[in-house]
Amino acid sequence: MQFFKTITKPKFVMTLILLTLIAAFIGVMIPQLSYKSPSYFEEWKLSSPKTFYIVDILQLNRVFTSVWFLSLVFIIILSLGYSLYSQVRRNLKRKDFVPPDWDFIDNKTVIEQESLIRFMRKKQYKLVHDKKMSLRGAKTPSPVIVSKAKQSHERLGAGFAISKSNENQEIATPFGLAMTDSGRTFVFSKNSINKWGGVIFHSGLFLIIVAAIIGLAFQKRGFVQVMEGEAFSGRHEDFLVREFGVFQKRFDAGFKIHLSRFQHTYWDTGDIKSLESSVAVTKGDTTADYNISVNSPLNINGVKVYQSSNYGYVLPFLLKSSTDKQVVTHFLLDRPDRIGRPAIGRSDFATTDYIFDMKFYPDITKPSFYPSKPILYLRVIERGTPVFEGLLIPGQAIKVKNDILQFMSIRSWSGLIFAKNIGTNIAYAGFVIAITGMIINYLLPYKEIQLGIRGDSVISINGSTKRYHAMFEEELSNIKAELGVSGDG
Amino acid sequence: MDDLLVLKYEVVLHWIAVGFYILSTIFFAYSVSFRKEKTIKPAMFFTFLGLLFHSAALGIRWWATGHGPYLMKYEILSSNAWVVIVMFLIASLRYTKMRPAGVVVVPLSFLMMTIGLFMNPEIKGLPPSLKGIWLVIHVTFNHLSVGALIIALGASVLYLLKEKKGETEFFKKFPSINVLDAYSYKFVGFGFIFWSITIVAGAIWANQAWGRYWGWDPVETWSLITWLLYGLYLHSRLFLNWKGRKAAWMLVLCFVLSIFSIYLVPFTVESLHSAYF
Question: What ipTM was reported for this prediction?
C-alpha cells in the first residue's frame, strides 16, 4: 500500500511526466531504428564504434521499445491505475461542497428566497443544499463550536459553510460569530461534474496506454506488392515485409486478394491525386469485389487492408533460350519520385546470368506517370559485360546472345498493407474519454456559492472554485453587486 | 484567371496585411512601452484591417487551390497566423482588458506570415492521404491550439511586465495580475485541449491512411513532447500550487520549446509529415 501511495504522490507523478519527456526527447535527438534505414546504423557503427556501442547497449536507438522505457510505462500504468482508484474513492466519499476561500459581509439585503434561487438558476447555478442550521467551520480560523442553547440568541455571522447537520446541531462559525437557528444557508453549485473530470481524463489516458501495450504485444502488419491480374494468398510466407508484436509469430490474413485493377491519377503539377485498387477478396467459397483507396481501408474480419503510397510498374519479359526453354520474369519498378523522370531498376533475370539495368519512361512524348506511350531503355549485362543496350517498346522482341527476349506488356503493381491491431478500438475509446475529461477539467471548473440567508436578507456570500480563482472572484463580485450585497469582499 | 495572376493578387494582399499588422504592433508597443492607453484603439483597428486583407488573401488562395490553406509551409504559416489573430480579436471582445496582449500576439503572427511569404507559394494539389475530415480537424485544432497558447503567452508576458512595473496609472488599466494569471491558465487549458485534439485527429488520420495511429515519427514525438510540457505546466499549477511569476516563466519556457515542435521540426526534420510541407 505504501508503494502505491508513493507512486501517486504529486511529486512522483510529476517526475514520471518529466522522465517521459526526457525519454521522448532522447527519441527525437538520437536516430531511431523505427524510422532510419539499417544501413544508416551500419555506417554509424563503422564510423564511431564506441559511441554506437554505448547508444546500442543503453537502447537509445530504440527508446520506445527499450526495457527502461517500457519499465517507465509500467510504473505510469500502476500510478495511473492507483490514482484512478483513489480519485474515485475520494469522489464518492466527498461532501457536496468544499469550505469557502473568502467571505463577504452584508448589511442585510432584502430578498425573497424563491427569487434568489431563480436568480442563481439564471446564472446556471443549481441549488445543491438548503439547510437550516447545519453548519461546519471553514478553513481559518479554527471553527468555534457553539451549543444549541446559545444559538437562538446570537446573530448570524458571516463567512460560514455548511455541512450535514448532526444530532447535536453543532454549529461552527469561523469568525467566532454564532448564529440563530432561523438562519438558512443555500449552497449553489455549477459544473459539479468537474469533480469527475480528473477521473475521466486519467481513465482515457489509462486506456490509451493499455492500447499501446496491446499493440506492442499483439499487433501484426504485413506489406505486399500485388501485380494487376495476380493474387496474394494472404499467407504469412507470402508477405514481402512483416512486423509483429512481441507475442506474435505469424500473420495469416485468412483470405485471398486478387488485384483486378490499379488506378493512379495526378494533378497537373504531377502530384498524386488518387490511388485505388480494385480487388476481389476470396474467403472460403465466397468472393466479393471491393475498392481500396488511401484513407478508405478494407476491413475483413478485423484485418484491415490499406492502400499504400508505394506502387509502380510491372515489366514482364519472356526469355526463349536456344533450347526453346521459356522463362517469364516480372520486374517491379517503383514509380519515379518526380514527373518526367524514369522508373529505375536493376535486377537479376531468373535462371540466367543476365542482369537487367532498366530505365522506364511511361510516356515518351511528354512527362507523365500514365504508361500511354511507354518506352524502356534496357541494358543487359552478363558477368560484367554488356550484351545488349537499347530502347524497347511493349511487345517488341530482341536477340540477346542466342536467346530471344520479349518485352511483353505494361502493368501496374499496387502496395497493400495488411494490419491487425486489437488495441485500436481501445485507443479510440481512450481518446474520446481523455478529451472529454480534459474539457470537463479545464473548461467546466467547479464553482460553489454559499449564500447565508436570515429571513429575507442575504447576509453572507462565500465562494470557492478549483481553477481560475481570480476570474471567479470577479464573477462573485458581480453576483454580489447584482444582489445588492455590500461588504469587504 | 490563371494561377500566376491569382498568386500575384494573393501575395500582394498578404503583404498589405503584414503592413497593417506591423503598424498595429508599433501602436501596441508604443502603448505598452510609454504607457499610452489611447494608442490601443488604433492598434486594434489596424489589426482588424490587417485581418480583412489577410482573409481576402487566404480566400483567394482557397478558391484557386480548391482546398483549405493547410498544405505547404506558405499556407500553413499564413492560416496559422490568421487563426491567432481571429482568436485574439475574439478574446479581446470578451475580455477587453486583454487587448494589450496584442504586443505579443500580433508580432508573433505577422512573423509567422512573413516567414511563410518567403517560402515557395506554388499551388499544390491535395495528395490522397490528405483528403478527409480528420486532416481538417487536425489542422484546425493545431491552429486553434497555437492561437490559445500565444494568447496565454501574451497574458503571462503582461503579468511579468505589470509585476515588474507595479501598479502605475497605465498598468492599473490592465486586469489585475491575478486575473492575468488566471487568463494565462485558462488559455493554456484551451491550448492543451486543442493540442490533444490535434494529436488525436492526427492519430486517427494516420491510422486510416497508413494503418497505424502512432509510429514515433519525429513530428509525432515532438508533438508528444509539447503535450507533456504543457501537461507538466498544468500539473505544476495544480500539485505544486505554482502561480504568478513562477507559472508565467514556466509558460514562457514551454512556449519556446513548443516552437520546435510547431514550426522547426515539421519543416526541417525528415519524417512522414515532410511530404505535406
Answer: 0.86
